[in-house]
Each structure stands twice: as C-alpha cells, then as structure tokens.
Automatic annotation (TrEMBL):
Residues 104-114 have a biased composition (Basic and acidic residues). One of its GO terms (biological process) is cell division. Keywords: Cell cycle, Cell division, Cell inner membrane, Cell membrane, Cell shape, Membrane, Transmembrane, Transmembrane helix. The chain crosses the membrane at residues 6-29. It is found in: Cell inner membrane. Belongs to the ZapG family. One of its GO terms (cellular component) is plasma membrane. It is a single-pass membrane protein. Signal peptide: none annotated. Residues 101-145 are annotated as: Disordered. This is Z-ring associated protein G. It comes from Pseudomonas graminis.
Length: 145
C-alpha cells in the first residue's frame, strides 16, 4: 500500500508543480511580446506623424514660393509696362509693346481650347446597305434562292 501511494502521489505533485510553473511562464511571456509589438506600433506612428509634418511643411513652403513667384512676375510686368510707356517714342510703338506684354488684350474672348469647326457625322455601328438588298433583320437575309 505504501508503494501504490507513492506511485499516485509523485505524478500528482509533478502535475501540480508543472501547472504552476506553466502558469507563471505563460504570464511572463505574453507581456514581453505585446510590449515589443506596442513599441513597433509606436515607432511606426511616430514616423507617420513626422512624415505628415514634413508634407505639410513642404506644401506650405511651396505655396509661399509660388506666391512670391507670382508677385515677382507681376512686378516684372509692371516694370516692363512702365518702361514701354516711358521709353516708347511714338504711340504706335507704345501700343505694340503693350500688346506684346499683354497678349490677352488683343483677343479677350478667345479660349485656349476651341471645338472643331466641322460637324463630323458620328460613326455608324452598322454596315450601310443598298436600297434593293434586304437588311440583316429580314427573314430572307443570307438565303440563296
């Protein structure tokens, strides 16, 4: 009887100890993996936020540069118009210089894209037939007599 108690007691104690060790190991390991995943997620989020800030900065500086460019273009146009008014010797030359500076003044109603001048007939989705031949929907179409 003493031997049979030992045969049952040792595996039971080993099972309980194994469950306890497995419980603690299972509690310790999953905490390590989500922390690594959370760290990776935080790194990706930080990189994304940095990228978004860089894009916003890029487009803001581009808008400022385009605004400066358009202001410079306007200033150059004014300078050339002032020079044409001041330096042209006669009225005809002055008008030609101003027309060259402002080509829209000659044709204010002209569009960049003009529609085609000819009214072309749209393509047909059937073959034309001669007046004396039967059409494709005729019951005698394709039959030889």
């Amino acid at each position: 009887m003493d031997y049979s108690l030992l045969v049952w007691l040792l595996p039971t104690i080993a099972l309980v100890v194994g469950v306890i060790i497995g419980f603690f190991v299972a509690r310790a390991l999953p905490n390590a993996v989500p922390n690594g995943t959370q760290r990776q997620l935080d790194d990706v989020q930080e990189r994304f936020d940095t990228y978004q800030n860089e894009v916003i900065t890029h487009f803001n500086s581009t808008a400022n540069l385009v605004q400066k460019l358009s202001q410079s273009y306007h200033d150059v146009q004014e300078h050339l118009a002032e020079g044409a008014n001041r330096l042209a010797t006669d009225d005809i030359t002055r008008q030609r210089l101003l027309a060259a500076l402002h080509p829209d003044a000659l044709h204010p109603h002209r569009d960049r894209l003009t529609p085609p001048r000819t009214a072309a007939e749209p393509p047909k989705d059937y073959a034309p037939k001669s007046p004396d031949s039967p059409g494709m929907l005729d019951e005698h179409y394709g039959l030889k007599k």
